[in-house]
Specification:
alpha/beta; Rossmann fold; 2 domains; 6 strands; signal; protein serine/threonine kinase activity; HMCN1-like_VWA; secreted; Thr-specific_kinase-like
């Protein structure tokens, strides 16, 4: 079979079509059935005869309906205070990842996706007195490598009351987040606020803010508004009250979860797993709908 241009060339006849007319007839004529409203059709963007399938999954469309139908993976970042008081929360993060994998597989199987579409990153931060160990991180990877990173991660350091939260968030921002995925989550787990008098009114060696001149407001807004990342702050105690107030001024989309209960570890696990599974359930329902 020949496309339009090759057809006229084969018969050595001058092509009657030029410019946009020629490019249009050489496009696939399969269109998104869900966009067929008000005489508008969103046609496949591939070339004619790229496939003979009538399954929408084998075609590509630049339309809102198609965006809803296609699963593009899920990115999860755990940004964790890794100073001396946080050892049990680092250990718990391994359990949470294992549970996420187990629960996610149920939903992914239903939409014919494998667990490799789930990527996990861990960013550990401490404080500025901790030398070259202020931050440690593993880029987005599979669950096993993320768990191995956590297994080898040591909770230590931390000088004054606040910690290098800004540095942890900055590293998180610079991770290789998927641009085309709508399911991107950052879980900030901490028991101490950032440096700066707006976040804490005692025991701060850097009351003017991060000594690296990182701006938390800018970082959070880039994470949320530019990259489309959903930020959840797992608040371990009331020393974070001032921080919560300021963060909510920066961006109203930030979600704070109060985990100061008799079993904060369980609360964290339930929250994280619930958020991730809800996103997968919503995607599952949407894809099955179409």
């Amino acid at each position: 079979m020949l496309n339009c241009k090759d057809y006229w060339s084969f018969y050595k006849i001058k092509n009657p079509l030029v410019g946009s007319d020629l490019s249009n007839v050489d496009k696939c004529n399969f269109y998104c059935m869900d966009c067929e409203t008000n005489e508008f059709k969103s046609f496949c963007t591939d070339q004619v005869m790229h496939t003979f399938s009538n399954d929408w999954r084998h075609h590509n469309f630049n339309c809102e309906c198609n965006e809803k139908k296609v699963y593009k993976g899920i990115d999860i970042c755990f940004t964790i205070d890794s100073t001396g008081s946080m050892s049990k929360y680092i250990e718990k993060s391994r359990d949470i990842i294992n549970k996420i994998v187990k629960e996610s597989k149920i939903h992914l199987d239903k939409i014919n996706e494998n667990i490799n579409s789930l990527r996990i990153s861990v960013v550990a931060y401490r404080d500025h007195c901790d030398g070259n160990k202020i931050t440690e991180q593993i880029e987005f990877t599979d669950a096993k490598k993320a768990i191995d990173f956590l297994t080898n991660l040591e909770a230590f350091g931390g000088g004054d009351a606040p910690e290098a939260v800004a540095d942890g968030l900055d590293i998180s921002l610079k991770l290789n987040w998927r641009q085309d995925s709508n399911d991107k989550f950052l879980f900030l787990v901490l028991d101490s606020p950032p440096h700066g008098r707006q976040y804490i009114n005692r025991g701060d060696d850097y009351p003017d803010g991060c000594p690296c001149n990182l701006n938390i407001k800018t970082i959070l807004n880039e994470l949320i508004d530019k990259k489309g990342i959903k930020v959840y702050v797992l608040k371990l105690n009331s020393s974070l009250n001032l921080m919560e107030k300021e963060f909510k001024k920066y961006n109203s989309k930030i979600v704070f979860i109060d985990t100061e209960t008799s079993n904060s570890l369980l609360k964290i696990e339930e929250t994280v797993v619930s958020v991730v599974c809800k996103a997968l359930e919503d995607k599952e329902i949407t894809i099955q709908k179409y």
